[in-house]
Amino acid sequence: MTADGSVAAPTTASAPAAEPALRDVFERLLAAHGPQHWWPADTPFEVMVGAILTQNTAWTNVEKALRQVTARTALTPAALLALPEPELAALLRPVGYFNVKAARLRAFCAALLAAGGEAALAVMDTIGLRARLLAMHGIGPETADDMLLYAFERPVFVIDAYTRRLFARLGLIGGGEPYEVLRAWFEQALGPDAALFNEYHALIVRHAKDLCRARRPRCGDCVLRERCPSRV
Asked: CA 126 to CA 116: how far, in whole Å?
């Protein structure tokens, strides 16, 4: 935090100074990978469920769990709450930590219904909605921002491990900055644009999984290679 209480930007580059580099990275990733059509879900509620289930697991595991749940019952808050928690946990086994995630998902469904449902949340302003989501059991900043961006189409930039890895290697951030600092930095640099944030985050995930991997990165195939000081 700065002296006046605002969020400080990373010391590696000010947000305005970083804008050209961030947009160049986006254009290169888009040209290399194409539109990602993310988040893969049929309804906003399915996005929110997926955001909870994808914590600490691969998306392929989430897809398996969602198939099992939807084969058993409707994917609605009321239907999920009607399932006994042990039965829900068994359906969620592919995502790991299935007992914890079953409890979190049920708590989220109960909180969502108590708040008046998805429609009631959708009319809230972004700051208020984010605070409401963060107050729910098991919903941290990254999960809340996944919901805000992909379910409610709010201009909130999601910060995850892929984002930290990619932009730290590019030398644009340190990588260890607090979540809120990085979120504010990206949003200030790029301006409020939900469609851009949606595509950008999806491209970051794709690129970091396929090429900018934690171990054995495929730098020779990377479209960002020429501007990356960490290339090998």
From this structure: 17
Q: Do residues 95 and 53 make contact, with C-beta atoms less than 8 angstroms apart?
A: yes
Predicted TM-score (pTM) of the model is 0.92
Q: How many domains, in total, are found in the chain?
A: 2
Tell me how far apart the alpha carbons of residues 180 and 184 are, in angstroms, rounded to a whole number.
6
Average pLDDT, the chain: 94
CA distance 30 to 108: 34
Residue in this structure with the two tokens 């999601």, named with its chain if needed: 158
In single-letter form, the type of residue at position 126 comes to T
Print the domain residue range for 85. 44-151
Cα gap 196→30, rounded to integer Å: 11
CB 66 within 8 A of CB 50: yes
Please list, in sequence order, all residues whose beta carbon lies within 8 angstroms of the beta carbon of residue 56, skipping any fewer than 6 positions away: 96, 97
190, part of any domain: yes
Kindly state the tokens that stand for 213: 């991997």
User: What are the backbone dihedrals phi and psi of residue 45, each rounded to the nearest 5 degrees, phi first?
Assistant: -65, -40
What pLDDT, in 10s, does the model give residues 3-31?
Answer: 333 344 444 567 878 999 999 999 999 99
Integer Cα distance of 190 and 19 in angstroms: 6
Tell me whether the omega of the peptide bond preceding residue 59 falls within 30 degrees of 0, making it cis: no
